[in-house]
Amino acid sequence: MKVEAISSTANEVGLSFTDVDIATLYIIQHELQKNPDVEFVGVILKHPLTNECWMRVTSKSDPKQNIRDAVDAAIISANEMKDIMAMDVLV
Questions:
Q1: How does DSSP assign 45-58, residue by residue?
Q2: Contacts within 8 Å (CB) and 24+ apart, 33-37
Q3: What is the enclosing helix (H) or strand (E) of 84?
Q4: Which of 84, 81, 41 is nearest to 60 (CA)?
Q5: CA distance 64 to 79
Q6: C-alpha 79: how far from its chain's center?
Q7: Which residues pair with 8 in a beta bridge?
Q8: Do residues 37 and 59 touch, judged by C-beta distance below 8 A?
Q9: pLDDT, tens digit, 9 for 90 and up, residues 23-32
Q10: pLDDT tens-digit profile of 49-87?
Q11: pLDDT band at 91 (very low <50, low <70, confident <90, very high)
């Protein structure tokens, strides 16, 4: 995955992702939407042939830190799911 900043201000950040599954960005978007400081978060598939996705985050606080926190929360959720699957509770 390659990430590149398209735009960045104190309250907004725009990112371009290549070689990434958009589903991963949807998970991060979901975590960002839980944060009351985040005013807007959008994810789009820019073009299916180039596999480029864009994300824009607008926040009352630091959007870069909000993204970091959302990624950490997504990792924790994924690890919890992994642990549940390892317990063989699902048949």
A1: EEETTTTEEEEEEE
A2: 34/73, 35/59, 35/66, 35/69, 35/70, 37/61, 37/66
A3: helix 63-86
A4: 41
A5: 23
A6: 16
A7: 13
A8: yes
A9: 999 999 999 9
A10: 888 999 999 999 999 999 999 999 999 999 998 888 888
A11: low
